[in-house]
Amino acid sequence: MTDRAYAWFEEQQKARGIDVEQVKAKLKALRIETPSWGYGDSGTRFKTFQKVGVPRNPFEKLEDAAQVHRLTGLCPSVAIHIPWDKVDDYRALRAHAENLGLSIGAVNPNLFQEDEYMLGSVCNADPAVRRKAIAHLLECVDIAKETGSRDLSLWFADGTNYPGQADLRKRKGWMLEALQEMYKALTPDMRMLIEYKFFEPAFYHTDLADWGMAFNMACKLGPQAQVLVDTGHHAPGTNVEHIVAYLIDEKKLGGFHFNSRKYADDDLIVGAINPYELFLIFYQIISASADADEGIRETVRNIAYMIDQSHNIEPKIPAMIRSVLNVQTQYAKALLINLDEVAAAQEAQDVLAAEDAVRRAFEIDVTPLLHAVREEMGVPVDPMQAYLESSYPQKILSRGKGGASW
Ligand code: PSV
Ligand code: MN
User: Fold this and answer.
1) Overall number of domains in the chain
2) Could you tell me the CA-to-CA distances from 295 to 223, 276, 298, 300 in Å, in that order?
3) pTM, full prediction
4) Is 41 in the pocket of ligand 1 (CB under 6 A)?
5) For ligand 1, atom 5, which residue shows the shortest CA distance?
6) Range of the domain at 218
7) Which of 72, 313, 327, 330 is least surrounded by CB atoms within 10 angstroms?
8) Could you tell me if residue 84 is inside a domain?
């Protein structure tokens, strides 16, 4: 049945001028990093529900992440968050990852959980607090060296709640100073990926509130600094794919934190709320991947696709599998856009034909394609079902309740 469905799919796509073998090769090359914190308990300011079977330490988080990779073939690296994932021996953590067929991905400094940071970390008016925050950034560079990580993923909760609370321009200068000191500590192969977010936990102003501010910092720092787009960090209605296209064109898009939001930074399963947005993001990336400028093609090749989610009510491992599969699905659909057709419609200034050429790919059922690709990759055609039928959900119950939070 699958074979017949795939044969029909292939015939249809070839008739549309799509190189299906190339699409399959691209799908096999897709890599999505999962976050260690997505395997732990998390919650809202109202309640964190503790689940049975949640990993008790960073080593067990990696074991859960290995299940996601084993079943999808797409997730060989895991981002860590420090100090949530602080261990005595990072080489041991790295070795554990490698034994599981994984690597440690982006290192995320955490500058938002200590009392001293209530009024800011790197932008705090107290030089002692700023020094402590910078020391943590530098510690994370050292950790990245030990874990073999390339990317330092930076998000700052810094901001204020009230007009007049702080000097906004001084804080801008302190942010740059901190980032510059960190930048100097990088080895040539490392990158700083600078995230932005327009509000929360601060509600009046955030020191890096939008992509323009992150971009400005990245430009001032140099080529090893780029912008990280967290899809949940925009006001409703923001055209995220436009930001993506703009940053790619400036060779400053470093990576993504994928998740879904309905209202704000809801951190829901990616693709659950607005899969079309994800598809349109991939459309911009795929169209740039064929650019004549090698610098743009290189930017696209180096984009780090990462998931940043909190699973408050849903079981963590299947939620992560669902997220990864949703990303894969939208990427597959975007690969089916006939870019020549779009270009011809744009050339003719035919608005409806251009919109149709893009949307039509979104409407294609890619199930037969994904089944074929998974078969060729040697992973289950239905990774979610394979997980639920495996012994792993039972096995982890022995961990009991009260595992790691985030
Ligand atoms: C902040 O909302 C964020 O998106 C940052 O990436 C953090 O590191 C992550 O979520 C976890 O809190
Ligand atoms: Mn994020």
Assistant:
1) 1
2) 12, 28, 5, 9
3) 0.98
4) no
5) 155
6) 30-338
7) 313
8) yes
